[in-house]
Inverse folding.
């Protein structure tokens, strides 16, 4: 047998170029966008981070959590505690909150991973409720009624109001880019190969040497890290925290699931598209009061019936375009004009 | 040298059904062993207990000198036990090449210097080279069976458990697959092969075990086992006094 010459192709250059262009344009936004627009975009970025992380858990790893608000709230409370009691600069408190979230996710995962499927989902929610009740016991942070971020802490972000808005805007953009970058890197690494294998057949993955539990553990920890940072950032935007707002299943899980599902579960681009659609709907429909929530429900149902793989999923299947293809293609050298077989798996299109 | 695989007193029951009744079996390194038996004899469960997917009620599994009875499937795979499933279980959304990469990256005791190179060579060996970038879920049955074999090989096993790889294939496909199994065995990999297509099995194995109701009823060179009166009665349906 003669060994064939070959090389591996990954693709995604065009997508990376587009993403870079978008990142540069957004980073320059303070130069041309209004203060209100910047505030809105910062919220969108935080939601893109949350939805991308939920997608990593549910869409790529089969960990359908409805309790990620545990880490949003934890991150928010870490921000308040670290800045108010330890004098940590607010922007530095964001990554620290991430570290605390990741550390706490280890014992939480040890408990939750005893549960599977729907039981895991319910268990994660219960855990978030426990977090909420614990937060309401912290009298130094206002107990059940919550607390506002003191002026001296707010001033520590930056001296002028405009500089603060810019700083928080850039921090939000950086977080969304960091989270998406981290997820792309993870999914394209050998861990990502294991995750995708687990996604299609857990027993076969295990029979082929993949330590399923360990892979899920790592993913859960990473998601806790990112979600806690997003939580810290969100409550730096809001400047006020209370247990009900911080651990809201509606704001931090239901909306996030909505975004991911209409955008496309199990695709990197899905949550980004979903978050943009969600905010577009909110801007156009929020005057309608409670009718707005009904409309969101109608959109979700229509999306599930008409585009079960989400808006991006439908688009990607039509056009074959993906920003960050996950697959590896084998290309044989010295073959006489023969293309290397047809398109492969998810993220494998030419 | 001790046998590669030693099974001692392995028992398993599902409710009232005994699928393994104190099975003991040794497989020397490099041997090709066939297992036959009627449906429900406990063949696949025996494999599942060797590979770690099912925990036995009693007994132990020793592989390469180490007791692996309590180890999860992924650890056994890394020690050198590879399994092909009766119904192929490819990672449907991954390419054929990536299916092999999973086993090459995670299923080996020692990290390969160039796992991609190994996988390309195995694809060549298994006749899948032109399908490297095909989505595994889009393969035909024969291709899926070849992929099961190729993926198992990518973990560099010392022992290969084949569960009915010839079933459902046409005669020509079957011949091609037997040739592939033989070529794998020729590289020194021990093979334990469950198969209902007896002529395919007999062309590749040097020893045959017959299983019935969770017990070994015959064990020896294939010709003798096939000629055994109990095997003829239970498995072939020929009355003993005929």
């Amino acid at each position: 047998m003669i060994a064939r010459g070959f090389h591996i192709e990954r693709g995604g250059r065009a997508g990376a170029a587009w993403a870079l262009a978008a990142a540069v344009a957004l980073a320059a936004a303070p130069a041309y966008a209004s203060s209100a627009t910047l505030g809105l975009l910062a919220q969108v970025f935080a939601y893109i981070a949350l939805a991308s992380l939920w997608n990593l858990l549910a869409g790529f790893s089969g960990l359908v959590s409805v309790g990620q608000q545990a880490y949003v709230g934890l991150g928010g409370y870490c921000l308040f505690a670290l800045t108010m009691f330890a004098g940590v600069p607010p922007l530095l408190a964001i990554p620290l909150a991430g570290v605390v979230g990741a550390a706490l996710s280890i014992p939480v995962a040890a408990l939750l991973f005893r549960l599977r499927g729907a039981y895991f989902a319910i268990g994660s929610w219960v855990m978030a409720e426990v977090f909420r009740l614990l937060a309401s016991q912290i009298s130094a942070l206002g107990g059940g009624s919550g607390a506002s971020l003191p002026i001296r802490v707010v001033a520590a972000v930056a001296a002028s109001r405009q500089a603060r808005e810019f700083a928080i805007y850039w921090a939000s953009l950086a977080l969304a880019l960091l989270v998406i970058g981290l997820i792309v890197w993870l999914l394209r690494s050998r861990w990502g190969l294991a995750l995708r294998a687990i996604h299609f057949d857990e027993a076969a993955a295990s029979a082929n040497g993949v330590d399923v539990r360990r892979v899920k553990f790592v993913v859960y920890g990473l998601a806790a890290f990112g979600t806690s940072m997003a939580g810290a950032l969100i409550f730096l935007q809001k400047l006020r925290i209370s247990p009900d707002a911080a651990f809201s299943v509606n704001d931090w899980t239901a909306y996030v699931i909505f975004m991911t599902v209409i955008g496309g579960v199990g695709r990197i681009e899905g949550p980004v598209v979903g978050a943009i659609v969600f905010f577009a709907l909110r801007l156009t429909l929020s005057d309608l009061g409670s009718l707005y929530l009904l409309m969101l429900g109608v959109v979700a149902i229509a999306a599930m019936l008409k585009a079960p793989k989400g808006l991006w999923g439908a688009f990607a299947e039509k056009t074959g375009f993906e920003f960050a293809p996950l697959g590896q293609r084998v290309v044989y050298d010295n073959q006489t004009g023969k293309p290397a077989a047809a398109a492969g798996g998810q993220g494998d299109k030419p | 040298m001790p046998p590669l695989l030693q099974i001692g007193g392995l028992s398993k029951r599902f409710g009232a059904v005994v699928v393994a009744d104190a099975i003991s079996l040794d497989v020397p390194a490099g041997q090709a062993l066939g297992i036959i038996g009627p449906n429900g004899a406990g063949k696949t469960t025996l494999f599942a207990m060797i590979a770690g997917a099912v925990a036995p009620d009693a007994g132990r599994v020793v592989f390469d000198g180490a007791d692996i009875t309590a180890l999860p499937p992924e650890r056994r795979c890394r020690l050198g036990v590879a399994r092909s499933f009766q119904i192929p279980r490819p990672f449907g959304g991954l390419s054929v090449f990536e299916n092999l990469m999973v086993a090459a990256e995670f299923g080996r005791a020692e990290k390969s210097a160039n796992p991609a190179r190994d996988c390309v060579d195995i694809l060549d060996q298994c006749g899948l080279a032109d399908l490297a970038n095909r989505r595994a879920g889009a393969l035909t049955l024969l291709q899926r069976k070849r992929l099961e074999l190729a993926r198992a090989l990518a973990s560099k096993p010392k022992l290969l458990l084949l569960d009915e790889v010839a079933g459902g294939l046409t005669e020509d496909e079957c011949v091609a697959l037997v040739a592939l199994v033989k070529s794998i065995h020729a590289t020194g990999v021990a093979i334990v092969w469950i198969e209902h297509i007896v002529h395919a099995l007999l062309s590749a194995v040097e020893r045959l075990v017959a299983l019935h109701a969770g017990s070994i009823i015959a064990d020896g060179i294939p010709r003798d086992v096939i000629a055994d009166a109990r095997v003829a009665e239970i498995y072939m349906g020929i009355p003993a006094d005929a």
In short: The first helix of chain A runs from residue 13 to 27. The radius of gyration of chain A is 21 Å.
